[in-house]
Amino acid sequence: MLVLGIETATLQVSVAIGGHEGVIGLFEVARGRHHAEALVPAIDFVSRQAEIEMREIGVVAVDIGPGLFTGMRVGIAAAKVIAQALRVPMIGISSLDLLAFVQRQTDRLVVPVIDARRGEVYYAVYRSVPGGVQRLTEPTVASPDDLIADLLARGDEVLCVGDGANAHRSQIANAVTKVDFADQASPYPSAAPLVRLAHARAMREDWVQPGALEPMYLRKPDAQINWSTRAMAGRAS
After folding, report:
1. Which pLDDT value is given to residue 234?
2. Which of 15, 28, 98, 119 is surrounded by the fewest CB atoms within 10 Å?
């Protein structure tokens, strides 16, 4: 069964196609917030690179977040349109799961940290298990100080990964002694592990129909927060 993977939850656009033999086509580009412009050409490029026609796709997988609101909407909307057109099911996987899975060989706790902007981060805690990783905490949005307090309370050796970890690296490293940071080419989630994880779930028929797939929003969109703040200020005046 062939899987089309779409990842746009961060600054990177990543598209992959793969199956039981692994990933057979991959395209990644970090162009800031130009997700809508980059995604369709990326899908076309990967399908040609892998010599796969879209009608051969059996499942569409997508990163459901947390991440940048605009990027998430672009990827999820495109994935749903493709799945509906092909009449195939979907699999949604968290961006934090994707970052953690890449570090599954470590014997330390894995803490993927994604930059949530506005002085906050998205993160969760994982541990390695045979064949992958196990999530120990629910994904959460917090300040870097709250993340540091969580790591200190655990007292375990941890491996931080992701653009949020990079953005607050000095602050985390100065406060937590048992911490290291993953050495990686890109700090963003990739469609390559998305395809691998989705294919394993597809073999168990662990999927949903397009209408049932939901994004993982851990806070309100910035625009909604701004309007709420203005409304409160207006009532106060």
Report:
1. 53
2. 119
